[in-house]
Amino acid sequence: MFSENEKDIVSNFYSRLDEIEDKELQLIWEQGYAIAQFDTCFEDFADDDEEDEYTSFIFKVITIEGAVPVEISPEGYFIVNYHNFPKKIEVKS
Description:
Helix content is 14%, strand content 45%. The protein has two helices and five strands. Strand 2 (32-45) and strand 3 (53-66) form a beta hairpin.
């Protein structure tokens, strides 16, 4: 299911998706964190010639603190995958 590049990074989080439904999560990176709710996940493809296939996770942002490696959509969502996966994810509620 997961590529070799992402297996060790996202598989543990993916296996806990049922546990985090409707909960606030704190996604922690080196330079900041986001409080968000998980929305959905999907299979994604890189834009380069290597055709890297991986799983992406969509979150609805609640708050952001510091510099996080995500782009927030006008609707308040962001995508995380093995390229920008947080160092730690904690359940807030």
